[in-house]
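Q: Hi! First time doing this. I have a protein sequence and I read that you can turn it into a structure. Is that right? Here it is:
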Amino acid sequence: MTEGRLGYNPANDRYGLLVSDLWVDNGFHCGECLEVFVDGKWISTRMEMSAERKWYLVDTPYYGNLEYVKARI
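A: Yes, that's right. Below is the predicted 3D structure, encoded as structure tokens:
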């Protein structure tokens, strides 16, 4: 698995995975699976967009601004 952080990519209006400021995945699509670090453990989730056009991670506290969320794929 590749571990990094989420970052917003304005070129495609999506969040992607960055490792040392380099794109490993330049933009997740709705329904794509990944893991995020929540309360000291890795949680399986998927990327989705709300009716208000806000990105969020299913079954996590992350909604809206996902910058710097520790993640892995």
